[in-house]
Design a protein that fits this description.
Blueprint lengths: L1 E5 L10 H11 L4 E5 L3 H13 L3 E5 L11 H11 L4 E10 L7 H18 L3 E6 L2 H11 L6 E3 L6 H7 L4 E5 L12 H8 L5 E3 L21 H12 L3 H17 L3
Parallel strand pairs: 1-2, 2-3, 3-4, 4-5, 5-6, 6-7, 7-8
Helix pairs in contact: 2-3, 8-9
The protein binds zinc ion.
Zinc ion (ZN) binds next to loops.
Length: 258
């Protein structure tokens, strides 16, 4: 099994660190983890982690929440790291009009810069989209075809959004929210059933969005199995079959150049 989106270098893990997370994940069959950066220090950290661990992949970029702070030197550093073999994608990048912790115009500019640098290094993109579906799609359309697709992580849209991003070469990734009681039988379940089997991923987005039965506690890569089990249940298939599907998809998205 693969956790397609984890923030193992986040400060919430300062107590035990990435090694303990990797070991606990491996012990329950989560054999690969895609570790995603959100600012410049974490870009350096995830790249080092992936360099030192065969089972960790790095994704480098500056989160839209950081859009008020980035410099052109920062973007140059992201591009330098993005070109390395242990870095499989660019992100997370996108738009967040839910929290609006940074200026929307700066977010758009940062987002476009990431898509341009992904095109130059020839790697896929990991997209963060909250309350910004239409604009994310229209900006992706401007650049689609220049880079090898990507994933809408923590997918929070409906079937219309799914249908808009599939032709752009995108996958969608399902987080622990799918296990929340309030979401059972809701839009996300419909999206999972409507998604082509070869475009579906699962993730933790740890330390956040902890799935049931650990909801309320800190999330970690080992818990992606609870999300996967719930997705399998929605699709009416065995967990092992879902694992084969999502593991194959994650490897195809992030390792097609190997
Ligand atoms: Zn994330």
């Amino acid at each position: 099994m693969i956790d397609s989106h984890a923030h193992m270098t986040h400060g919430d893990f300062a107590d035990d660190g990435p090694e303990a997370l990797i070991d606990r994940a491996a012990a329950v069959g989560v054999e690969r983890i895609v570790c995603v950066a959100f600012d410049i220090p974490s870009c350096e950290e995830v790249t080092a982690l992936a360099r030192d661990h065969e089972t960790v992949d790095a994704v480098v970029g500056i989160h839209p929440h950081e859009a008020d702070r980035f410099t052109t030197d920062d973007l140059a550093r992201v591009e330098e790291l993005a070109g390395r073999d242990e870095v499989v994608a660019v992100g997370e990048t996108g738009l967040d009009f839910f929290r609006r912790w940074s200026d929307p115009e700066r977010q758009r500019s940062l987002f476009r810069s990431h898509l341009e640098l992904a095109s130059r290094v020839g790697k896929p993109v990991v997209i963060h989209d909250r309350e910004a579906h239409d604009e994310v799609v229209s900006i992706l359309r401007e650049h689609a075809g220049n880079f090898p697709g990507g994933v809408l992580h923590c997918f929070s849209g409906d079937i219309a959004l799914l249908e808009a991003v599939l032709p752009l070469g995108f996958y969608i990734s399902i987080p622990g929210t799918v296990t929340f009681r309030k979401n059972i039988g809701g839009v996300l379940d419909d999206v999972i059933r409507a998604c082509p089997a070869d475009r579906l991923l699962v993730e933790t987005d740890c330390p956040w969005l902890t799935p049931v039965p650990h909801r309320g506690k800190r999330n970690e890569p080992a818990y992606v199995r609870f999300t996967a089990a719930r997705v399998a249940e929605v699709l009416g298939i065995e967990a092992v079959e879902l694992d084969t599907i999502t593991t194959g998809n994650t490897l195809r998205l992030f390792h097609s150049r190997d």
